[in-house]
Amino acid sequence: MNIKIRSEQIKDYRRIAEINALAFEGEYVGEVTMVDSLRHGTMFDQELSLVAEVEGKVMGHVLFYPFDMYLNGKITKTVCLGPIAVDPEFQKSGVGGNLIEEGHKILKEKGYKLSFLFGHPSYYPRFGYIMNMFGKSNIKFEIDNMKQIEMASDEIKERTVKPSDLKELMGIWENWYGDIDLAIRPGEGLMDWISHTSDIKASVFLKSQEIIGFVRYNKNNLNDIRMFIAKNKEATMEILKYLKNSTSMKSIELPVHPDSTAINFFEDLEYMVDLQTWDAGMIKILDENDKDVEIYCREVQEGIRKAGLIVYPPSYDMA
Ligand SMILES: CC(C)(COP(=O)(O)OP(=O)(O)OC[C@H]1O[C@@H](n2cnc3c(N)ncnc32)[C@H](O)[C@@H]1OP(=O)(O)O)[C@@H](O)C(=O)NCCC(=O)NCCS
Fold this sequence. Notes:
Layout (H helix, E strand, L loop, with lengths): L2 E5 L5 H11 L6 H10 L9 E6 L2 E15 L2 E13 L8 H15 L4 E5 L16 E8 L4 H4 L5 E5 L5 H12 L5 E2 L15 E8 L2 E9 L2 E10 L2 H13 L5 E5 L16 E6 L3 E5 L5 H12 L17
Parallel strand pairs: 4-5
Antiparallel strand pairs: 1-2, 2-3, 3-4, 3-8, 5-14, 6-12, 6-13, 7-9, 9-10, 10-11
Helix pairs in contact: 1-2
Bound molecules: coenzyme A (COA).
The site of coenzyme A has 16 residues, from strand 4 and helix 3.
C-alpha cells in the first residue's frame, strides 16, 4: 500500500472533517470543530497539519499544534499531537503510524524539543511517548461559609474577553502559571482565550473598570474550571465569591500547581491538593540533546520531581 504524507491544503478541509467524524463517531464530533479552531490559532503551522494519501485519496490526518511551553523556567518549543484520525476502512494498516513518524521528522527539522498528547496508552508508546508525564493538578476547598470569601467585595463585574484585554491578561497569566513546568503560554489572539463550545464560558473580571482576573469555566459545573487567574489574593477571593454566588456549589476545584507562587493566595483556605499523573498524559522527547526535557521526564518517572501542569487551551475544549 502506497502511503504519501504531505501538508494539508484548503481543498482537503472537507475530507479532513469527514475523516474525523467517521473515526471519532458520535452524535457530536468535537474533533471536527477542534481542528477548525486550532487552524485559527496564532501559532498554527500548516506544515504540521498532515494528511495521508492512499492511492491518491486522503485517508488520514494528524495535527501537531505548536506552543511555547515553560520548562525549568525557560520557554521550550513544543507541540501537542492531536487530533489524529484515520478513515475506519483504512485503520490498522499503518496510516496512523506513518502520519506520526513523518510528523516527528518534520518537528525535529523545525527544532521542536518535545511533543505531548493525551491518548491511548497501548498505541503511542510504540512511537517513543512516555506515559505518566502529566495529569491533573487541582486544589480543592469549601467555598460555602468561608469567612475569607464572604468578606470579599461584591463590586466586581464579569464580561466577555476583548482583544484589548489580552496584553494585561498575559501579565496576570505569567504570575499565575509562568513558574510551573509544562505551562503552555496562551497565544496573543482572542481565539487563544475563548472557547468554541457553548458550555465553556471565558470571562474577564473587572473592579472599578480595572481587570482583576480571568476564568474559563463550565457554566454548569464549578468543579470544571479550565483556567483561573487573578491579579492578587484580594482579587482571587472576589472572583471566588462571585462564582459562588452565581451557582449553588459548596466546594470548588481550581487548576493550580502546589509549586506555583499563586498557591500563596489560598494560604488562609483549607485546601487539598489533587496532583496526579495519568497513563494517557504522555511526552515524547524530540531533541535528545535537550537536557531540560530529558531531566524532566527522568525525574518525574523516578518520582523525585512533581509533574507539571498542562492547562489545555480552549481550542481543545469539548462540550
Ligand atoms: C488511533 C488511530 C489514529 C491509529 O491509526 P491506524 O492507522 O489505525 O494505526 P496503525 O495502522 O499505524 O497502527 C495500528 C495499531 O494501532 C492500534 N490501535 C488503533 N487504534 C487504537 C486505539 N484506539 N487504542 C489502542 N490501540 C489502537 C491497533 O490495534 C494496531 O495495533 P497492532 O499493530 O499492535 O495490531 C486510528 O485507529 C483512529 O483513527 N482511531 C479513531 C480515532 C482515535 O481514537 N484517535 C486517537 C485519539 S487519542
